[in-house]
Amino acid sequence: MADRTLDMLFDTVRDLATAVYNLRQEVNAGFQRMQGEFENVNGELAQVKGELTQFKEELEQLKRELAQLKGEFQEMRSELRQMNERLDRIEKRLAKLEGESNHAKIRLFDVERELEEIKRLHL
């Protein structure tokens, strides 16, 4: 009976050793799968990091271009303001010349009328 108990004990130990071995195999396989997934995720993370770096560089470039455009816009705005001031001065000069032209036309008309009057009186 002791032999039988001892055989049962050895069988149980062998079954436990087999179960531990199988469990260890499953754990190792799971670890390898997780390590593969970790490497995949790590690769994707590196790719996203590279894309983020590229995006940051593009954003900085856009910021520089925007600053340049803003400067050019301010310059154009200033030039437009100066042109408007020049146009205002030209309009004032034209209005003055138009007034002088109208005055000259009236004087010419008066002179022509006086000349006609003088001619009529001398004839």
TrEMBL record:
Keywords: Coiled coil. It comes from the Bacteria. Pfam families: DUF1664. Residues 7-99 form the DUF1664 domain. InterPro entries: DUF1664. Residues 38-114 form a coiled coil. This is DUF1664 domain-containing protein. It comes from Kyrpidia spormannii.
